[in-house]
Design brief:
CATH class: Alpha Beta
CATH architecture: 3-Layer(aba) Sandwich
CATH topology: Rossmann fold
Order of helices and strands: EEHHEHEHEHEHEE
Shape: globular
Number of helices: 6
Number of strands: 8
Structural class: alpha/beta
Helix content: 25-40%
């Protein structure tokens, strides 16, 4: 069982059907950038960390607070594509590993989480954590250090530069495809999968993690290297 959820963290059960956005008409089609083996891998001495940056947000309302910015139509489509990839490659293993899902409380992150994780036929709970909102890579590491060791897989849905900095701190080597796709950038709606050589999350920190995959929702996003959150 997971440890009790802190007061600054809200747990919301994921709906069984994907959240629909009225700005998108018709189904979202098209493959993600590359296909990869199924994740996470099974190894008691390895923890698996999924890092998902929120999809592209809408900047049209100059009076909208940063926390409240919704996804742009392009962001909704990208989140759906990540959902398709997760269904193809991770759903079966998620049933066995019961991942802990940690998400920033910013609206763009919450909406990304709901879209990317919807309709996976899993009893997932999204834990909305205020401490993940633009807090820096060290804050993410501190949060990981409090994850129970019975949890083998964690997914964080958050922001840049936090996620890019975290990958830089945790990654040693990686698959050639993942290293090439990453190239030091973390575009919106990109998904990094790291294997950490630790038996306890309390040991999270600077280490030679392995970048197993770096998934881009569409080819055009590879050029979107903005460090904006």
């Amino acid at each position: 069982m997971h440890r009790p959820i802190p007061r600054d963290l809200l747990a919301v059960k994921l709906p069984s059907a994907p959240m629909q956005d009225p700005s998108v008409t018709g189904p979202v089609t098209g493959p993600v950038r590359r296909r990869s083996p199924r994740y996470p891998r099974s190894d008691p001495a390895v923890k698996t960390l999924f890092l998902l940056r929120h999809a592209k947000s809408d900047w049209n309302d100059p009076n909208c607070a940063d926390r409240d910015r919704p996804l742009a139509p392009r962001g909704v489509k990208a989140a759906h594509r990540i959902n398709h990839w997760l269904r193809d490659h991770c759903a079966a293993d998620f049933r066995r590993h019961n991942p802990l899902i940690l998400c920033s409380t910013a609206r763009r992150a919450r909406d990304t989480a709901r879209l990317a994780l919807a309709d996976l036929d899993l009893d997932l709970v999204i834990n909305y954590d205020r401490s993940l909102y633009l807090a820096g890579a060290q804050a993410l590491i501190d949060r990981l250090r409090h994850v129970p060791d019975t949890v083998t897989t964690v997914m964080i849905i958050g922001h840049n530069p936090d996620l890019a900095d975290l990958v830089d701190r945790l990654r040693g080597d990686g698959t050639p495809d993942a290293v090439t796709a990453h190239a030091g950038a973390f575009p919106t709606a990109a998904l990094a999968i790291l294997e950490l050589p630790i038996e306890s999350w309390a040991n999270s920190g600077d280490q030679d993690g392995f970048l197993r995959a770096f998934i881009l929702p569409r080819r055009e996003d590879h050029a979107d290297n903005s460090a904006a959150s």
